[in-house]
Structures are given as C-alpha cells and as structure tokens.
Design goal:
21% of the residues lie in helices and 41% in strands. The protein has nine helices and 21 strands. The strands form three sheets. Strands 4-3-2-1-5-6-7 form a seven-stranded antiparallel β-sheet. A six-stranded mixed β-sheet has the order 12-11-10-13-20-19, with helices on one face. A five-stranded mixed barrel has the order 9-14-15-17-21.
Amino acid sequence: MEIPQIIEMLKEIKADAWEIEECVNESWQFYFIRHALDQNRLVRTTHTIVRVYREMEDGKLLGSASEEIPKTARPDEVRKILDSLMERASYVKNPFYTLNPPSKESGRESADSPGCDAASTAAAFLKMMESVSEDEEAYLNSYEIFTNVKTVRFVNSRGVEREATYPDSMLEVVVNAGNKEHEIELCRIFTMGTCDEKALKESVEEVMRIGRDRLRARPMPDLQKIPVLFTSSDARELCGFFTQRLDAAFKKKGYTDWEIGRSIFGGEMETKVTVETLKKLPNSSCNRAFDMEGALRSDAVMMKDSVPLKFLGKRQFSCYLGLKDSFVPGNYRISGGLHTEEELRSGDYLEAVEFSDFQTDALSGNLAGEVRLAYWHHDGEVIPVRGGSISATMMEAAKTMKMSRNLKQYDNMEIPAVIRLEDVSVTGA
C-alpha cells in the first residue's frame, strides 16, 4: 500500500499524531568461496514503518506504537494493523511531547549524488578483493559483498516531508590462518558508504597479519597494571563513552552528571576531548540528511576541550530537556589528542588489537575484554600474546588518557588512531 492511502486510513482512525518512514533499498549482493563466485543477486526491497501516537488524560500523556506495513498488504489488513497500533499506544504513558515540526530546509538529496550507484560500487569491491595478498599461511576462506543504495522518505502529521538517497555497503570477510599445529578462523564485517579501495585493502590484509601472529602468540603473562594502547576498531567503544554521555535520553534519565559549560571530571583530564557530530563524513554509511524522526542533521560541536556544549538525541527526550534543533547524530569526530604515535609508543606497554568481546559501559565507565591477540612491547622486544583479559574504568582512566593527533575513520566515526590508557589491569592467560 502507498503512503497516501496509509495517511487516509490514519485520519479515519483519528490518530492524534503519526510518522511514516519508507525505505527502498536497491542491493547488489555477491557470495564468494575463496575467489569463486557461489551466487549473486540483485534485490529491491521496500520497508514501510508506521508509528501511531495517542494523547491521553487531556493531553498530559502521549503513547506510541509502531509496526511495519507489508507492501503487499490488503486495505483490510492495513486497517487491522493500524487499529492494533492505536490500542497498543494506549498502554504507553509518557509525559506529553510533540513531533518534529517542518523547517525551511526540505531535507531532500538528489539520487544522482556521488556514490549512489550500487553497480559501480560493487565493481570496486570486486576489484579490491582480487588484489588482496594471500599466502599458504593466511588466505581468504570466503567473503560476501552487499552494496546498497537506500532512498528514504519520511512524513509526519505536522507536515514534515523529507527524502534522501545515500549509499550503504558492507563487506564480510572470513580469513583462515594455519600451520602444522593448528588453524584459526577470523571473521570481520566492514561497513561503509562506498568502497575506499586503498583503506579497505589495508584493513583486510591487516586481518591476515593478525591471523599469522595469533599462530605464534604466547599465552598472556600476568602483567597486572600496565599502559594499554588501542589501535583497532575496538577504540570506538572508548569513544562511545563520551558520545553516549552526551545523549539527551542519557541526560534526562539521570545516567550522567555532565552539565553544559562545566568541565567533565572536574577538569582533571590530561587530554581535553572534543566531540563533534558531522552531517557528512566521507564514505560513511550514515550520510543521511535527517534522522529516523525527520529531524534535519547538521554539523555541531557537542563537547569542546572536555566541556559539554550541547546534548542531542531523540525528539521525546529533547523536548523534555527543552533542546532546540536537536537530532539523532549519524557521524561523529572525536579529537583533542596532543601526541604523535611515536610519543605514545614509549616504554613498556600492551597493544591490544583483537578481542573476543570488548565493551565500555557508559553508565559505570567500566571497560573489559578478553584478549585474542595483543603485542607486548617489553625491553625493546615485541611479543605477540593471547588469552587473558583487560579491565579498567573510564572514570579514572579518562583523566590520564592520551590520544594521537592523527585520526582514523571507522565508517561513521573519525577517532584518534592511537588511544593510550595508563594503569590498566591485565590478567594472564
């Protein structure tokens, strides 16, 4: 069913407010075993999500419920879904807030913008994968390529109508590394807008190197307290500690005591961190002009030199906090480092590059992970080690944290290439 028909039904059931998001995805998909094509397909899908809002207690409360409307649904089936949403919305009783209003900017982006061509993006991925260096010790077991061009249309009951077309791609790689004693398998998923051939090739070959080094890694010694360097995509978890604590919902729920205009941690940070949200980041998969609630995105500095300047987030919590021009960010840049990579690589330290799982909890600040591969830099020697775990808390580690001046991009995040935490607990294997 088309959007205008759904809108008419929403008026018939007297929904107090509503939002509709329709996403049309044109996807080229390839599945390889080694370098032999197993299957490929071209897919076009349409997903239509409807959210219904219901006012209660004379407008003091607002409830909501959402569900996907199948494209092939008959009118009676759609009506049944909408009636169900109205009932379900009555069970949710939040303090009242309003939906996003229209603005002067349309939020529309041309389908002819650079990168919005699934076929040429797929060709770049195929070319890049053929150029990856392999040997008998480490090689490509299989890989999958998905190149998507998404066209999203958003409308709501307040008159907002927006449309954007943007690329969103994914490469999943399985690498095997083995010798006479044993064999291991590593899986990586890379997300991005289009194919940055040079950077992506380096990333895939880095997985090969990690596989080779894990074959000869020693068990992790009990290092107790030691500096740890984060130089892989896991560093995004550390940066997420800052971005999550600047989220409007996090603030409204009382999960953070950060205040606008007041230095975090009492100003006791050696590195002054700056957090920016960017409307566009080259080759990001999140370069959409508006968020999932129709709010236009823009460039904004959320924190400058460890001083919060702006909370951003979903409309509900933005209204509760009285925020203007708020939105859910798509891209982030974390900066503020004062050091070169060489300066951060001083003395004895552990460089963690591979975890079975690594997480940083933005509420408590606790971080932990089980190490699959790290490099112990000790007395001028670099020793690959495996097993064991690391743990610390950002509530303390952030005060002495050091970051490199140069940045590295991981899809929608541009962060310091090297982050160093002092006095991290390292448990031996």
